[in-house]
Amino acid sequence: MLDKAKKLAEEWAHSERWKGISREYSAEDVVRLSGSMQIEYTLARQGSILLWSLLHQEEPVFALGALTGMQAVQMVRAGLKAIYCSGWQIAADANEACEMYPDFSLYPYNSLPLLVKRINASLRRADAIDFAESKKDIHYFVPIIVDGEAGFGGVLNVFELTKWLIEAGVSAIHFEDQLPSAKKCGHMGRKVLVSTSEAIRKLKAARLASDISAVNTVIIARTDADGASFISSDEDQRDRKFIVGRTDDGLFEIKGGIDLAINRALAYAPYADVLWYESSQPDLLKARQFAQEIHKSFPGKILAYNCSSSFYWKKLVQEDQLHNFQNLLSSWGYKLQVISLAGFHALSYGTFKLAKECKEQGLIGYSEFQENEREAVAQGFSAFNHQHEVGASYFELVYDTIVGRKQTKDHL
């Protein structure tokens, strides 16, 4: 046990991966809490290593929110190098309560790891199909970045949720600094924050869970301070200068905004690999200000930005700025950029459009939809051949292998 702890302590002290990361527990603590057998979490381990490498390349990591496994497969086929799992989307249409909820953390929190498992299962199947047919040009095992919401409770809830997500195969997890029992979508008003100290304790819980799992999970601290109105506690001195009053129900009124977001992110920086600025508007000046203030104290700290579906982009950002929006963000250090609700909107709009055209044109409407699918095949779209897409030919090969039937090209 001592040798293992010594090796781990040396890695924390000397590895470039852990430069600037604080742990307020010892390597001996991690070894003692890890159990006698180290379980291998290959998908999570490989994905976290790949994501960390991608985040240090010139191009930003750009991911869309996936609502299903097949959406994730299509995103990878289209060339995206990471998948995002949004808590908002899980609440809306992918939770284990089988309900449709707003983004208020009302759904069972095992919904998060179960969706990640479904996505990884689909990616594994797509890889197996291609590999059996000697197609090796797509790497399906892309990193999955998941929204851990506000942790669904206290530090032990965060600790357990992180372990479940690692077991499901995530590469990165972000936790926001909202109060779990009053959690709202990041782009809604009247958000309630927890104290800075409580948010840090949750980041430490996530790190400990990842250390115990022997996976270098990318831990992301998201601050919702830009659009927040209240805080649940005045326990932390760092929060007090932003408190402006008290409410009848025991909360503290605060002056939310960019200054509070910067103040909190600076406090989170030693405990997180990436800092996420959840902005209320697509405001480049504020995004740059946030980055500059963070990098004064933490040069090179990786940042994340939500190019949210809550923003009406055409209305809020001029077209010439829209072309360069992501490049500017990237140049300021926002190396992780997501469109969190892309899957929900793609599924909803695509289905509505098809249904409307079928309602008005009958089979003509569907045939035109099919034609659009067929034309996309040249660009790499493969679900036009739906039997093959879900593995019919692959399982025929499996069957033939079991019964000893000779395989022919017709099976491929």
Q: Helix- and strand-based class? A: alpha/beta
H/E topology pattern = HHHEHEHHEHEEHEEHEEHEHEHHEHHHH
Low-pLDDT segments, ≥5 res: none
Strand content: 5-15%
What integer value in Å does the Rg equal? Answer: 23 Å
Strands of the largest sheet, in order across it?
1-12-11-10-6-4-3-2
Q: What is the typical, i.e. mean, pLDDT? A: 94
Counting DSSP H or I runs of 4 or more residues, the number of helices is: 17
Secondary structure: helix percent: 40-55%
Outline type: globular
For the termini, the CA-CA separation is: 51 Å
Strand tally is 12
**Main sheet specs:** 8 strands, parallel
Walk me through this protein's architecture:
The protein is α/β, with parallel strands linked by helices and 412 residues long. The protein is built from 17 helices and twelve strands. The chain has helices at residues 2-14, 27-33, 42-54, 69-77, 87-93, 111-132, 155-168, 196-212, 237-240, 258-268, 284-297, 313-316, 319-331, 342-361, 363-376, 386-389, 392-403; strands spanning 61-64, 83-85, 144-147, 172-176, 191-193, 218-223, 228-231, 243-246, 252-254, 274-277, 302-306, 334-339. The strands form two sheets. It has an eight-stranded parallel beta sheet with strand order 1-12-11-10-6-4-3-2. A four-stranded mixed beta sheet has the order 5-7-9-8, with no helix packed on it. Helix 7 runs parallel beside helix 8 (196-212). The protein is globular and about 70 Å long. The model has no long low-confidence stretch (mean pLDDT 94).
